[in-house]
């Protein structure tokens, strides 16, 4: 298993931080 | 895959059979039945029609039906597999299945590619990435100078857009994800592995006898 490329943070890592991409809310009914 | 030894699975009129859905996903039959309880509660929250519309989807996720967001809209579009403007039970289970820890990396990679290919062109384009980045910055109230955003985009495309055509194709995305596995982190919800014990609130007594393998 590789680790992430040692570049500066990429745009997709930032985008993945969006709370709107977290589906946990479904299970907190 | 869902494993079933049963003679009596529930039937849900108008919806796909739980045994069939379990056979196509990582969920067991009783887990599909538990997901049906969840689906029912979401799908009747605004309009009791047995389908999840965008308002109900957002209400379930964010407890706020007015919370419009670029990512939330895109996730809804991907769950709306049949492109009907609503999510039926089969769409719901199959889409959630991609987030299961046992779903394949290929499925997760494909889902993220479609998530970020917002205009459905078959490529993730720089303008789309910029739009998502700005949405994220607004959401988190982070401020970055325009130059910094361009540097991040330059670096990202330098790494991911191997053929240098200014857009990221599906193969380029797969290669990029292999080098940056944390990009798939959002695609796994660990508790989907055992939803019936983690979320007892929407579990009922299944009529199905199951033997886990």
TrEMBL record, chain B:
GO molecular function: calcium ion binding; kinase binding
InterPro entries: CNBL1-10, EF-hand-dom_pair, EF_Hand_1_Ca_BS, EF_hand_dom
Record key words, sorted: Calcium, Membrane, Metal-binding, Repeat
Gene3D superfamilies xrefs: EF-hand
GO process terms (BP): calcium-mediated signaling
Record SUPFAM superfamilies: EF-hand
Subcellular location: Membrane
Pfam families in the record: EF-hand_7
Domain EF-hand: 67-102, 104-139, 148-183
Family per record: Belongs to the calcineurin regulatory subunit family.
Function noted in UniProt: Acts as a calcium sensor. CBL proteins interact with CIPK serine-threonine protein kinases. Binding of a CBL protein to the regulatory NAF domain of a CIPK protein lead to the activation of the kinase in a calcium-dependent manner.
Assembly with partners or alone: Homodimer. Interacts with CIPK.
Protein name: Calcineurin B-like protein
UniProt organism field: Brassica carinata (Ethiopian mustard)
């Amino acid at each position: 298993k590789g680790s992430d490329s040692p570049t500066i943070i990429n745009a997709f890592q930032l985008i993945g931080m969006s709370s709107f991409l977290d589906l946990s809310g479904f299970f907190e009914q | 895959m869902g494993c079933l030894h049963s003679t009596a699975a529930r039937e849900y009129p108008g919806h796909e059979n739980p045994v069939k859905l379990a056979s196509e996903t990582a969920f067991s039959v009783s887990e599909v039945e538990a997901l049906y309880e969840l689906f029912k509660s979401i799908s009747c929250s605004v309009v009791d029609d047995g389908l999840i519309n965008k308002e109900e989807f957002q209400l379930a996720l964010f407890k706020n039906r007015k919370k419009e967001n670029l990512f939330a809209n895109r996730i809804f579009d991907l769950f709306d597999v049949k492109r009907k403007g609503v999510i039926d039970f089969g769409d719901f289970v199959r889409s959630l299945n991609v987030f299961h820890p046992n779903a394949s990396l290929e499925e997760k990679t494909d889902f993220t590619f479609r998530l970020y290919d917002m205009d459905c062109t078959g490529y993730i384009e720089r303008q789309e990435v910029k739009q998502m980045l700005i949405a994220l910055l607004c959401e988190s109230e982070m401020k970055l100078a325009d130059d910094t955003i361009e540097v991040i985009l330059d670096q990202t495309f330098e790494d991911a857009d191997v053929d240098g055509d200014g857009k990221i194709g599906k193969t380029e995305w797969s290669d990029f994800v292999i080098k940056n596995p944390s990009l798939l982190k959002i695609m796994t919800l660990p508790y989907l592995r055992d939803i019936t014990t983690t979320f007892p609130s929407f579990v009922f007594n299944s009529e199905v006898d199951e033997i886990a393998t």
